Amino acid sequence: xxxxxxxxxxxxxxxxxxxxxxxxxxxxxxxxxxxxxxxxxxxxxxxxxxxxxxxxxxxxxxxxxxxxxxxxxxxxxxxxxxxxxxxxxxxxxxxxxxxxxxxxxxxxxxxxxxxxxxxxxxxxxxxxxxxxxxxxxxxxxxxxxxxxxxxxxxxxxxxxxxxxxxxxxxxxx
Length: 173
Fold this sequence. Notes:
The structure is a single chain. An 8-stranded mixed sheet has the order 1-7-6-5-8-2-3-4, with helices on both faces. By secondary structure, the protein is α+β, with helices and mostly antiparallel strands. It has a single domain, classed as Bifunctional nuclease domain. The two termini are about 30 Å apart. The protein contains 6 helices and 8 strands. Pfam families: BFN_dom.
């Protein structure tokens, strides 16, 4: 667990995103969370694990389970400790792996916890808090996609950008 004790204010380098959809990658058959800039048409696909996609899908669909799932337990634990998740930030892209921070406050102290973006997003949905992506991550992701020699990567990005609302809800648990 990595803790940061920095300011949690929204930095000008952070871009607020919303979940545009959750779907299956037609090439790899892996789940993708598609984030969209709230102020533009810029999108960021993040491939996630099946279990994390299910946790996100459950919350997007407002489905309840008979017992708390892991992310529900984490929310209940934080709430029981009088802590609050204020925002999550996809903070870094290194070696094709995204990294995130969960910004929390407890007892007047602000901390940032290192997390996988899928877990951070699942918690953000449960806390109804904003999701941000660092501008450098967006730029790096765009450069990686543009410089990729793979035709399927370019085709996938174009396919993602042209999806309609019906296509975005095609993830099945």
